[in-house]
Amino acid sequence: MRGKDVVLEGVGITYPNGFTAVQPTDLRIEAGEFFSILGPSGCGKTTILRAVSGFVDPTQGRILIGGEDQAGIGPNARPTALIFQNLALFPLMPVWENVAFGLEARGIGKRARRARAQELLELVALGDQGDKMPGELSGGQRQRVAIARALAVEPAVLLLDEPLSALDLKLRQHMRAELRDIQKKTGVTFIYITHDQGEALTMSDRIAVMNAGVVEQVGTADQIYGAPATAFAASFVGESNMIAGRVLEVRDGHALIETALGQLVGRNPAGLGAGAAAMLFVRPEAMRIGHGENAMAAQLLRRDLEGAFLNLFFHAAGHELAVHVTNDGSRPDMAPGEEHRLGFAAAAAVVLPEGPLARTGQELAAQ
Ligand SMILES: Nc1ncnc2c1ncn2[C@@H]1O[C@H](COP(=O)(O)OP(=O)(O)OP(=O)(O)O)[C@@H](O)[C@H]1O
Ligand SMILES: [Mg+2]
Q1: I need a surface site. Which of 95, 171, 172, 293 has the fewest CB within 10 A?
Q2: How far apart are CA 278 and CA 13, in angstroms?
Q3: Which residues in the chain are classed under CATH 2.40.50.100?
Q4: How would you class 139 by CB atoms within 10 Å of its CB: exposed for 0-12, middle for 13-18, buried for 19 or more?
Q5: Protein residue closest via CA to atom 17 of ligand 1
Q6: Is 50 close to ligand 1, i.e. is its CB under 6 Å away?
Q7: Which residues of the chain does CATH 3.40.50.300 include?
Q8: Domain ABC transporter: where (predicted)?
Q9: Cα 111 to ligand 1 centroid, rounded to whole Å
């Protein structure tokens, strides 16, 4: 099996009811890449997969797979296979027949189907499970059968729509490594959809962060976590302290902003100019206690011990600030109510244009 590249050129998708689910998007996914699309519910992830697999036509732009324009090519004729959010195996067929299902329609004889199914089952580490019925397998094993079945038709591009969402947390984490392994062994291009940032960060070669029909940033996990390009990406991926302000001055790639916590400096990747409304983001693990740069007075609200880490929550001028430090035993006496000075290195903070933020888990739960 060999992967093919997938290119979206100005692809926009409006549904027949007039709702635009995907704004014009350019995306280049390399052959053999593990590429994730990460974003909240309803942002347009599945719609992009439907368009790549041929179940929905782009309203504008074009999609190329292996350099070939896919316009007018139906789902069955594309070099893609799709694994859905809620996969379904045929319960009355043994596992190997489930895997070989797509091959019968291609006129391949039973003996060859069985041999091919065996190869694929070995690939997903289920070589000795072919004669079982799906009901006799665990959730993670069934998921691997679904992957073997999708690979049976030798797709160049495998499209996976939240394939782990039905599994419990432990199994999901285990399957991350397995999926990654299967992808590397086959060389098939994987386009993996998830709203779970942990999944995207650990498995992917590159990630597209999507919000409200717009791809806001494409990059490696390090790039997206370390150098978010938008307020949404900074607030959706990982934890961040966010401080709103207005740019006073820019110099050497940095911006000085006026905030309720005083004047603060951070990197200025978007090239904001004086007067711009801005948001400064700094990760909890980049905050320092008693640090001179970007200093501010804050009151300790709460300390949560999380084994190797100590999570501290401070209050400062209407902001709640999270500080994560390694639990090396050097801060035994910090008690809630105490005043401390916090700070952070300018290089560890990023100043971005004001923009929509990701909603927190608490906000979503309150809906
Ligand atoms: N057939 C349709 N007709 C009209 N609107 C649709 C249709 N399918 C999806 N939408 C809308 O398009 C938007 C994007 O939907 P999509 O299924 O792509 O989201 P998603 O990112 O996959 O979300 P989730 O994580 O919940 O699966 C949503 O607002 C949805 O309501
Ligand atoms: Mg979806």
Answers
A1: 293
A2: 31
A3: 233-365
A4: middle
A5: 46
A6: no
A7: 6-226
A8: 1-237
A9: 42
Q: How many CB atoms lie within 10 A of CB 92?
A: 9
Ligand 1 lined by 45 (C-beta under 6 Å): yes
Domain formed by 233-365, architecture: Beta Barrel (2.40)
CATH of domain 6-226: 3.40.50.300
Residue 52 main-chain phi, psi, to 5 deg: -70, -35
